[in-house]
Amino acid sequence: MLHTTPGLIDAIRARFAHVDTCPFQGPRVFFENAGGALTLKSVVETSARFAAIPDNQGRDNVASHALIDIIDTAKADLSVFMNAPTGQFFAGESGTELLFRMIRTACVNAPKGSKVIGSSIEHPASRSAARRWADIAGLDYVEVPHNDDTGLVTADAYRAAMTPDVSVATILHASPVTGMGMDVAAIAQVIRSVSPDCFIIVDGIQHAAHGQVNINSYGVDGYAISPYKVFSRHGYGIAWISDRLTALPHDQLIDAPADGWEFGTRDTGSYATMSDVVGYFDWLGARVSDVSDRRARIEAAGHAIHTYETHLTNAMINGTGNLPGLRDMDHVHILAGADNPAREGLVSIVVRDVPSAEVVSRLNEQGIRTHIRKADHYSGNVLNPLGLSDCIRISLCHYNTEQEVAQLLAAVNEMAP
């Protein structure tokens, strides 16, 4: 849909900074989006504008009142973007920090001797927090194994490990190593069917850029994103929490409002840039659909993004023009399989007889930005069971093009022994 609408990809690319040129390297293709997506030009402008404002929230002056209104508007925008009509949004240090805080709060308020459940596919942001705070709170940690061949953890896998005494659960929405998206709603439903009052917290950091977040349909209590991975900037994270997670005793200042979860004065500019992000999805939705409702436009944008990114990953895997795809290159192995409908804009590969670090370096020399994932504390849980010490992650977003995919395929094809 995006690539079949004349001029739309060009209009999309025009809205992002450094879309085809690195300020340090020069011309380049950006396939490192899972490490941090490109930034909207409007976000850059908004950040600069708010960085110059000396006033803080909570004062009785015109500027302070305006800042409060901007934050309230951003929270309302996030509510529409993520379809969260209840609960609250707040900002923190990062997506990881917010996951730790939500998981910590759920664990220390859980009944002694109960259980925390999570999966082996999860990023350490949630796995580390769950293991640490389960131990401190005297809870048992239960790990649900993921499928090494598909790079997924399923609702059935959670069902096999669930017991009524599970009080806290974590779910990864999409893997930054395999690129596969999990069925959060189905997993949460299985958890609730066995333990209805369980607190369920979701790591949505990798998934958010693909534009399809629907918190109201998941039945969960917490959801975290990292805005720099969804077209905003570094320096903060955004969390949504349910009303019942909001109400749990949590870290806060003495005599502060009971529902407050933020520490100190937050950066109004960070909130304002989230309004820019939501506005971008709204703009895109209006160009791929005729719907008038804002949420419906955002859903249309998310659908179009997913469809186009699937088109790009299919081109990468199956080939484009006269170039063979990664699956047809004998020297390339694709993690989680060439035919995997759960894939979200990411293909991880290993090149036979060429160290992954060298592949990344050789691609970089040709102006193609990718990234190595090593079997370390970030990715070892996925790579070690596959017998891999590392892999090359090729991650794209909807502003990438088929021509850029062709450049990558030509470069990887040349690495054949």
Architecture overview:
Pfam families: Aminotran_5 (PF00266). Its EC number is 2.8.1.7. One of its GO terms (molecular function) is cysteine desulfurase activity. The protein is an alpha/beta fold. The protein folds into two domains: 8-39 and 295-413, Aspartate Aminotransferase, domain 1 (Alpha-Beta Complex); 45-278, Type I PLP-dependent aspartate aminotransferase-like (Major domain) (Aspartate Aminotransferase, domain 2), CATH 3.40.640.10. It has 13 helices and 17 strands. The protein has helices at residues 8-13, 41-51, 62-81, 95-108, 124-137, 155-161, 184-194, 243-246, 268-288, 294-318, 356-365, 380-383, 402-413, and strands at residues 21-22, 26-27, 29-30, 88-92, 115-119, 140-144, 166-172, 199-203, 222-225, 237-241, 319-320, 323-324, 332-334, 346-351, 368-369, 371-374, 390-395. Strands 4-10-9-8-7-5-6 form a seven-stranded mixed β-sheet, with helices on both faces. A four-stranded antiparallel β-sheet has the order 13-14-17-16, with helices on one face. It has a two-stranded antiparallel sheet with strand order 1-2. The chain is globular and about 65 Å long. The relative contact order is 0.16. The model has no long low-confidence stretch (mean pLDDT 95).
